[in-house]
Design brief:
Blueprint lengths: L30 E5 L2 E2 H12 L2 E4 L8 E2 L2 E5 L1 H8 L6 E5 L2 E5 L37 H4 L5 E5 H6 L15 E2 L13 E2 L9 E4 L2 E2 L27 E7 L15 E6 L2 H4 L6 E10 L3 E13 L3 E12 L20 E14 L2 E18 L2 E18 L8 E16 L9 E22 L2 E21 L1 H5 L14 E17 L2 E16 L2 E6 L21 H4 L7 H4 L4 E4 L2 E4 L12 E6 L2 E16 L5 E12 L3 H5 L22 E15 L7 E14 L2 E6 L11 E6 L4 E13 L3 E13 L14 E7 L8 E11 L4 E10 L2 E7 L5 E8 L2 E11 L4 E8 L19 E9 L1
Parallel strand pairs: 3-7, 11-14
Antiparallel strand pairs: 1-5, 2-4, 6-7, 8-13, 9-10, 11-12, 13-14, 15-16, 15-45, 16-17, 17-18, 18-19, 19-20, 20-21, 21-22, 22-23, 23-24, 24-25, 25-30, 26-29, 27-28, 30-31, 31-32, 32-33, 33-36, 34-35, 34-38, 36-37, 37-39, 39-40, 40-43, 41-42, 43-44, 44-45
Helix pairs in contact: 1-2
Length: about 900
């Protein structure tokens, strides 16, 4: 079994950046090692956690190698020599990365030279992901030829966030995406795409697919926000993919994904020990009342380890900033009381590695505006089981996982005078699925070939119910409260095949194909109110008109000029009975009717999705690349089974499903480059940069519009429903992140530029289906600003025990999609809030290797603003202090 890459624990302790270790001043720094004799992979993982270095071992390194270990205070170089003593292996250093190779292998590439040995891709087996990149981004991001991103555990802790979503907003091209500031959920917006699974949110690969829409906002539809609950106390790092490909995890994704990877035993247990723990407590001003967590891990025998954790959060109703003028807001944050627990059991049985993790979350919070406030009680269970098998066989590298995510929400809606009484809504969303894949590596005449292939599948199931005294009396009114949490099922299955070949050391070519299949199944009922109709007796024009001289005695006294008036009696004869004109004929009249139409929906969709990439490496430090990817998102449960109306005491007859709704498909082109330079100006500095330009075209983008259903017979009856835009939606932009670190200080920057073009209003939507009338009501989600700039810098003092940092953010005006009825219903983007600038300060002081103090000031200038893509005012100035203990 080939060895793996070990990510560094802290960039602050990284070795100096040169091509060899002998002339590095930082190499003389000594560390305390307590690494017993053990398999070399585990020994190198322990070495990485102590020194903060990345360790790469190629396929020429046999998996059976045992290290003699190392104990005592040593420099990294001396410790490596002892760890590799007697193994016949060699090492070299490039930047903050140690390369371990077998006899005769290249110094820096760890290439395989032994007969039958194949160089393996690196695998992350331990340590945190903090590195020398922007806000601690590890080097593998700058070695990846795509628009990947990482938010490290250190970055999550630097500037405490009230909600997990706040932690991702500094990543280029990424925004919090949450339309409701009160919710402890995350619905990322990446490059303008969010909601309904367009961006996959997962915890250790367990998809958080729950959806929930809101019938609010000026356009009548704020956002069908995702409902992913993630407690950052248990998060090791956040992996961001801004462009889906043909690999595992991309099924039914239109614009990428955000995966929250949880901590494990290796993150907590010091090298050579059998147990470890970490506790954090943070308190602050402006109703930042308490955030605390405790994590503990222990090794159970030689093969097993157990990690456990608890977390508690108490937040109050904060005050927005006082500077910057008045800012429109949909309401205010009402507070949150939450607790979470975490368990992870990991096993290492020779060639087989396993893990079983469970995160349970309970959140009680409020949302609302003005005098109306709704109470929410949300719970989420996310469970993932993983297994990998990587024997000494280049054709076998199997990874399998099974996962489950169960979200349940009980909402108590306060009574609305004149609309409805206090109502309880109980909704649930269950998702479960799995992945099975294998990677084979071959040595061919044209270069090293890697093949990756497998399958993945999952099911989504939504359930919902509502109760109030009036609903008990009028059951049909229930669906008025369930419109944005409908019942229904969706199945998604995918098979994929990828190939990568390196015909020369300076070029890598890869391509893939995936086939996605989906099925929607449900029985939504929508309602139609047919008004009362009356058949009246008429004077003329009817089959039953009655015209006769029926009273000659009267007519005889009528003057001749008036005789024709009195000889005409207007009315009708029906079933032998005479009816005067204007009177109703009951037998022909129809009273008001409320009719329900139940649709049995069982439909499938599918698509073939190719992708390709070419990466060049003209020099070791510069890696340009180009890529293309085709992505696809079939309608979700909310899109497909949307029905009912806005909450109220009446028949729900405003919304109806669109049985002609099509899947969204996108084509994305990228061109970019990665730069990794060490020793740029000094022996100990480093420079990291990733720059990407992208162009994305989306067909059949799903929005809210108007349809006329086949079943409704009322004249001019139309419903609000999800429809497809006929024309192409275009999103293009540039993202740059860079960081220069010279140990005593660092300076980094992230820049996002985005241009979005929505198609003009067309006459017919849903690919020519004439049941739609072309009227768009709203586009899900907000449009990110055209620009975002983040600057981050700081200094390390007192032998790097004291760290002081500052972050500046400049955000362009927040935009919103609207429908301008004055220009024929065209979709337009209008400014929703002003541009704003923020300054955050943060720092830490390490009292010892076990204890540290963290402090931060968020929104230093006390600016009143609404965050990009959000709807609620953000907190004003907030000062916080945290204390960490780690053993």
């Amino acid at each position: 079994m080939a060895l793996a890459a070990v990510a560094p624990a802290m960039s602050a302790s990284a070795l100096a950046q040169t091509s060899t270790p002998t002339n590095q001043s930082a190499a003389n720094k000594h560390y305390s090692f307590k690494i017993p004799s053990q398999p070399l992979g585990s020994a190198l993982a322990a070495f990485s956690r102590v020194t903060g270095l990345s360790v790469l071992a190629g396929g020429s390194v046999p998996g059976s190698v045992v290290s003699p270990g190392v104990t005592g205070s040593h420099s990294p170089e001396t410790a490596l020599q002892q760890l590799l003593s007697g193994t016949g292996l060699t090492y070299s250093v490039s930047g903050s990365t140690v390369h371990v190779a077998g006899p005769g292998a290249g110094a820096n590439d760890g290439a395989a030279t032994l007969p039958g040995a194949i160089a393996l891709d690196t695998i992350d087996v331990g340590g945190s992901a903090s590195g020398a990149g922007f806000q601690g981004t590890p080097d593998w991001v700058y070695e990846t030829p795509s628009s990947a991103g990482v938010v490290t555990r250190e970055a999550l802790k630097n500037v405490p966030a009230r909600n997990t979503r706040d932690a991702i907003t500094t990543a280029p091209g990424v925004y919090a995406g949450e339309g409701n500031g009160s919710f402890p959920t995350i619905s990322p917006n990446i490059r303008g795409l969010q909601d309904s699974g367009r961006i996959v949110v997962s915890i250790d690969g367990a998809r958080q697919n729950a959806q929930r829409g809101f019938g609010s906002g000026a356009s009548g539809y704020q956002s069908n926000s995702g409902q992913a609950y993630v407690d950052s106390a248990f998060v090791r790092e956040v992996d961001i993919s801004k462009n889906p490909d043909a690999k595992a995890g991309s099924a039914a994704s239109l614009g990428g994904g955000v995966n929250f990877r949880t901590v494990g035993a290796d993150d907590l247990i010091p090298a050579g020990d059998t147990w470890g723990m970490e506790a954090d407590i943070t308190r602050g001003t402006n109703e930042y009342n308490f955030q605390g967590s405790a994590l503990m891990a222990t090794r159970i025998g030689e093969a097993l380890s157990l990690t456990m954790g608890v977390s508690k959060t108490e937040l109050g109703e904060y005050k927005p900033g006082q500077n910057g003028g008045e800012v429109a807001s949909s309401g205010s944050f009402k507070g949150r009381d939450a607790w979470s627990s975490f368990l992870k059991l990991e096993g290492a049985f020779g060639d087989v590695k396993t893990s079983l993790s469970w995160m349970h979350q309970e959140n009680e919070f409020q949302y609302g505006a003005n005098v109306y406030t709704n109470d929410e009680d949300a719970s989420n269970d996310s469970v993932t089981a993983k297994a990998s098998w990587n024997p000494d066989n280049p054709l076998i590298d199997v990874n399998a996982s099974l996962w489950l995510s169960d979200t349940n929400l009980i909402e108590l809606r306060a009574a609305r005078t004149g609309f409805y009484p206090e109502t309880e809504i109980d909704s649930g969303f269950l998702s479960f699925g799995g992945v099975l894949e294998n990677t084979s590596r071959l040595d061919t005449a044209v270069g090293a070939l890697k093949l990756n292939y497998g399958v993945e599948a999952f099911r989504d199931k939504g359930t919902a119910s509502a109760w109030s005294p009036l609903i008990t009396q009028n059951p049909t009114w229930e669906s008025a409260f369930l419109s944005f949490t409908p019942e229904g099922e969706r199945d998604v299955a995918s098979t994929f095949f990828n190939g990568e070949i390196k015909p020369a050391s300076w070029v890598t070519i890869s391509g893939g194909i995936r086939y996605d299949w989906s099925r929607l199944k449900g029985s939504p009922t929508y309602y139609e109110r047919r008004p009362a109709t009356f058949t009246n007796a008429k004077c003329l024009g009817s089959y039953y008109d009655y015209l006769v001289v029926y009273n000659p005695a009267i007519l005889s006294s009528v003057p001749p000029p008036l005789i024709n008036i009195f000889k005409t009696r207007c009315g009708e004869i029906y079933a032998g009975k005479f009816y005067n004109a204007g009177t109703s004929i009951d037998e022909l009249s129809t009273p008001q009717q409320d009719v329900g139409h139940t649709l049995e929906i069982d439909r499938t969709d599918s698509a073939w999705l190719p992708s390709a990439m070419v990466e060049f490496k003209p020099v070791e430090w510069f890696r340009p690349f180009v890529s293309y990817g085709h992505s696809y998102r079939p309608p979700g449960v909310l899109d497909a089974f949307f029905t009912g109306s806005l909450p109220g005491n009446d028949l729900p007859q405003a919304f109806a499903p669109n049985v002609q709704l099509q899947a969204e498909q996108a084509r994305t082109w990228e061109i970019g480059a990665n730069i990794i330079r060490d020793g740029l100006l000094t022996e100990t500095d480093s420079f990291r940069m990733k720059a990407v330009a992208f162009h994305r075209e989306i067909d059949d983008f799903i929005v809210l519009g108007r349809i006329a259903t086949a079943e409704a017979t009322s004249p001019d009856k139309t419903y609000t429903s999800f429809v497809n835009l006929d024309d192409v939606t275009t999103m293009r932009g540039v993202e740059i992140e860079a960081n220069y670190d010279f140990r005593v200080a660092w300076i980094g920057a992230g820049l996002s530029l985005l241009d979005t073009e929505w198609p003009k209003r067309t006459d017919i939507f849903s690919n020519g289906v004439v049941t739609t009338d072309g009227q768009v009501i709203a586009v899900p989600g907000a449009v990110p600003p055209e620009y975002k700039l983040t600057l981050d810098g700081g200094v390390r003092l007192l032998d790097e025990r004291l760290v002081l940092g500052a972050r500046y953010t400049r955000m362009g005006p927040t935009n919103v999609n609207t429908v301008d009825l004055n220009v024929g219903g065209d979709l337009v983007i209008s400014e929703n809030s002003k541009a704003y600038s923020l300054i955050d300060l943060y720092g830490s002081f390490a009292f010892s290797e076990h204890t540290a103090l963290r402090f931060a000031v968020n929104n230093l200038m006390d600016i009143n603003y609404v965050p990009a893509t959000a709807a609620y005012n953000a907190p004003g100035r907030t000062m916080s202090v945290g204390f960490q203990i780690k053993y």
